[in-house]
Design a protein that fits this description.
heterodimer, A: 156 residues, mainly alpha, B: 270 residues, two-stranded antiparallel ribbon, 8 helices, 73% helix, globular, cell inner membrane (chain A)
């Protein structure tokens, strides 16, 4: 064992190496690693956040969809009801209108019949008078018997 | 192994275990182990330079394989420090731990270079009798230098964390109590602790690496004794090399952990 000046020289070399590592080797590696760790942590957090947001928005979307479905079926039911009502109304109106038309037509027909009857009565009386005139040209005074003939015609 | 010089086993081992020592003054202290210094500094510069080169171009985005590997080493060291030291580790302790780990690991790993190939290469470059040891951590100067540097840092951090008064107070008042009667016992206890820390720290590494080297040399000697010895030496040498991978990594790890533990303990008040 010979201890000599090598010891001092080695100690100086050792110290210089430590200082070199401390100043130039350690910080850049530490910086790179810590920055990457932070980036990874941030990325993971962002991913987690994104996933939560996606979950929430998909939940919201399905809620909105369900709501829309309910609303749509409500509207459909309402529309069906309204359609039925309209049809019913239309039916009612049509029936009333038809009844009115029928009633009007009947009244008109009645009137026509009456008018025709009146006309016929007149014509019958005229015809009867004409016939009677022809048969009884000589012995019947038209003026004297007109009263009787009119009475007969009225009875028709 | 070079047989033409009629080497004896002891001269072979002595040659391989001698430092390339250059005197720089009077007395045995004033000399330098050139091999230890050159190997350790070159290894330190290459290894930390490589990490620095990768760290300089480090990106926070998708890392290259190079960067991923360095981050693996970084994370390994950082995790160990994090478990032991709870202050701001990035300021000093963690970088120091990284330095210690990779540097000691590389210095230990020089043990894998076949001893005689290195000797042959050195003989070719520097002449037949040039001595050159490639494992800086099997030089007690290296391990003591590291341990003592850590020791001084330990005292510096202790004083920085507790103040000079607090540190001296702790020397006399812990671990047994503040009663003046047991001050001597406390002080003796702390003294032993302060002496044993650098000793065990440095001698553990030195002993493991030195012993590993000696075993490689003995196997190399055996390999020079004939065909049987060559085969046996090769097989056992391979086995020892594989086992030594564990020792090399483990000792570097232990050295780093002790460094971290000592520095962390220094800043905790008892």
């Amino acid at each position: 064992m010979d201890i000599n000046f090598t010891l001092v020289a080695q100690a100086i070399a050792f110290f210089v190496l430590i200082v070199f590592t401390m100043k130039f080797v350690w910080p850049p590696l530490l910086n790179a690693i810590e920055t990457r760790q932070k980036e990874i942590a941030d990325g993971l957090a962002a991913g987690e956040k994104g996933r939560a947001e996606l979950e929430q928005s998909s939940k919201r979307a399905s809620e909105a969809l369900a709501e829309a479905k309910v609303k749509a079926s409500e509207i459909l039911a309402l529309a069906e009801k309204r359609a039925t009502q309209i049809v019913e109304d239309a039916k009612g109106t049509a029936k009333a209108e038809g009844d009115r038309i029928i009633t009007g037509a009947k009244a008109e027909i009645e009137q026509e019949i009456n008018r025709a009857k009146e006309g016929l009565r007149q014509q019958v009386s005229t015809l009867a008078i004409a016939g009677a005139e022809k048969i009884l040209r000589k012995e019947i005074d038209a003026k004297a018997h007109a009263e009787i003939l009119t009475a007969i015609a009225k009875e028709l | 192994m070079a047989t033409e010089h009629a080497l004896t086993p002891s001269s072979y081992i002595e040659h391989h275990l001698s430092f390339n020592s250059q005197s720089i003054g009077n007395g045995s202290f004033w000399s330098l182990h050139v091999d230890t210094l050159v190997m350790s500094v070159v290894l330190g510069v290459i290894t930390l330079g490589l990490i620095w080169w990768v760290a300089r171009g480090a990106t926070a985005g998708v890392p290259t394989k190079r960067q991923a590997f360095m981050e693996l080493v970084f994370d390994f060291v950082d995790d160990q420090v994090k478990n032991i030291y709870h202050g701001d580790r990035h300021a000093f302790i963690a970088p120091a731990a990284l330095t210690v780990f990779v540097w000691v690991l590389m210095m230990n790993a020089m043990d894998f270079l076949p001893v005689d190939w290195v000797a042959a290469l050195v003989a070719k470059i520097g002449g037949e009798h040039t001595k050159w040891r490639v494992v800086p951590t099997s030089d007690i100067n290296t391990t003591f230098a590291l341990a003592l540097t850590v020791w001084f840092l330990m005292i510096y951090f202790a004083i920085k964390a507790k103040g000079l008064g607090g540190w001296i107070h702790e020397l006399f008042c812990s671990p047994f109590g503040t009663n003046p009667l047991i001050w001597p016992a406390n002080f003796l206890f702390n003294l032993i602790e302060y002496v044993s820390k650098p000793l065990s720290h440095s001698l553990r590494l030195f002993g493991n690496m030195y012993a590993g080297e000696v075993i490689f040399l003995l196997l190399g000697l055996w390999a020079a004794t004939g065909v049987t010895g060559t085969i046996a030496g090769a097989i056992l040498g391979a086995g020892w090399s594989i086992f030594h991978i564990l020792i090399v990594a483990l000792q570097a790890f232990i050295f780093m952990m002790l460094t971290v533990v000592y520095l962390a303990m220094a800043q905790e008040s008892h």
